[in-house]
Amino acid sequence: MYIKLYNQILDSSISSNRKLRHFFTDLLLCSDADGNVIKTKAAISRLTGASMEEVEWGLEELQKPDPESNHREYDGRRIIPLDGHGYGWIIVNYKFYRDLKSSSELRKNTAERVRRFRERKSKKPGTPLNGEVKSVQDFEDGVITEEQLAERAANSREHNVR
Known about the structure:
The protein is mostly helical.
């Protein structure tokens, strides 16, 4: 399992507290795909190498309201207790960051969208391709004959199919 970790965490309200920021990053690594940390404090301690005191401190700090947080949900808390287990926490904004598209994902999606658009445009009958608008205008102005128009259209379509 992996997580998306954005460098925006270095601009967050916990950035100046290196110990807390490190603990939060460790907690992200302990979470499942939905941002749930279904682990006991002892398990978190074992997995992260933090002492029980550090784990308890970190969990307490991350559950406090943070008026400086960019995310106002739950008063800026980073984690809230997970219901029904007696232990565990939900990382409040986990899904928001998980679902953000990276710049490479955005470029890939844009390239695919443009490819589909161009494919539809080249296959749509009656839609002029590059150069065809001028040829039609030339025909309407009497500059070229109907045969020359047909020849230009065939050449243009042949060129765009390649």
